[in-house]
Amino acid sequence: MTSDARSAELFERAQLVIPGGVNSPVRAFRAVGGTPRFIAAAKGAHLTDADGNDLVDLVCSWGPMILGHAHPEVIAAVTDAAARGTSYGAPTRAEVELAEAIVERTPVEQVRLVSSGTEATMTVLRLARAATGRDLVVKFAGCYHGHVDALLASAGSGVATLGDAEALASPSSPGVPATTTAQTIVLPYNDRTAVTAAFAEHGDQIACLVTEAAPGNMGVIVPGTEDGEHFNAFLARTCREHGALFVSDEVMTGFRVTRSGQHGLDGVVPDLVTFGKVMGGGFPAAAFGGRAELMQLLSPVGSVYQAGTLSGNPVASAAGSTTLRLLDDEVYRTLDASADVLRTAVAESFAAAGLPHVVQSAGSMFSVFFTPDDVTEVPDYATAQRQDTAAHAAFFHAMLDAGVYLPPSAYEAWFLSTAHDDEALSRIVETLPAAARAAAAVASA
Ligand code: PLP
To answer: Which stretches are annotated as coiled coil (predicted)?
Structure first.
């Protein structure tokens, strides 16, 4: 059993000066109860919390730490960059190299670097609206694209984790004007009939459709294939037919599920793409990109304004470029193999405990749904919401007590890194049966 006295003390202090004691809501353990662990250090696949507990990390900073924590080559690049100054407000070689690395790996011709995924999606909406001269935006329920006003309608991630039914109605957060989300059409994921109907009715007013390349913020949802056509291909085609832009949000999947992201799995070429997480190597860096003709609408070439004091920051760019350079084919083979080990172990442990569940994957990104017996597949947010969150909370705490740090939410993917070696995987696998039994006890109560 891990102790949390020092984390509790820090949490008390934090709550006095930071709302809820955290700088991003889902860190607060609200959905699972208990005290969030304050992290003192991390190396490889392991976190050390403020009480000195060693935890195997399956959050990986919610995706970025694909090479594990404090990778020696990333740290060396960052140290070297920082020693030469941490921000200049003028262009650098480092940001050119990061932009080149992104363009080389993905279907975009140009990128602009920003500091967060939220900034990337926010700007992409502006660009799409400017390019088309239209205002409406289509998104899917349960997809999260950062806390952009227009996209905080039926959002996933922390909004899904913390929200009640009322808060999940459109708009998802007080402070977002209804007039803003009135420009946003929210549809059920994987529902082609709903997409076709929305475009039939509003097609000539829709600037863009934004989707997570493969959703990971309502748990991992598989984009379906119908009559040989991938859901993303269907979306791209529908947008094209109506003169709207297809925007793929690869903030979570980019450079994680393949060398390029979900594009490497489905081959669909979006008009605009957003990136984040992995490409920042653990620093605040993100990007958006697309065809040069669209990107040239941005200031200073065009008139669509976008800017950032720390955009393309040299330390973040060094961390990002080094991380991308180290992501060779072997990395993806390792991640796929590790994900397989865990998926199999989860299925076996949950079956042995008699705990109904569904495991879904997008490449090595996967999640476990604590769904009832009659659910064999989770295609959308409405089905994901049928989860037994109490069973999930019991599972989460049993794992944490045994030294495994999972996302503190039933609506999030589990993230692996190349540092999850046999020892780390074995520790997780050994922990699963008892945690599954703890969850089953609550589920059947
Ligand atoms: N888009 C997706 C798919 C995400 O998963 C996230 C964050 O989890 C974002 C956008 C927002 O990125 P950030 O938290 O860097 O603002």
So the answer is: none
Domain ranges of the chain: 5-33+56-70+329-443, 72-326
pLDDT digits (tens, 9 = 90+) for 380-439: 999 999 999 999 999 999 999 999 999 999 999 999 999 999 999 999 999 999 999 999
**Cα 422 from Cα 424, distance rounded (Å):** 6
Domain 72-326: CATH class, spelled out: alpha beta
Point out the catalytic residue in the list 144, 189, 332, 381: 144
The reply to whether 144 belongs to the active site is: yes
Does the structure's ipTM exceed the value 0.95?
yes
Please give the distance, rounded to the nearest whole angstrom, from the Cα atom of residue 443 to the centre of ligand 1: 31
Distances in Å between the alpha carbon of 357 and those of 58, 100, 343, 372, 373? 19, 42, 12, 7, 7
Task: Kindly report the length of the chain.
Answer: 445
Tell the CATH topology of 5-33+56-70+329-443.
Answer: Aspartate Aminotransferase, domain 1 (3.90.1150)
How is residue 169 written in tokens?
């109605």
Is residue 60 within 8 A of residue 406, CB to CB? The reply is no
277 an active-site residue? yes
Question: How far, in Å, is the centroid of ligand 1 from the Cα of 121?
Answer: 9
CA of 353 to the centre of ligand 1 (A): 34
Give the Cα separation of 441 and 427 in Å (integer).
Answer: 22
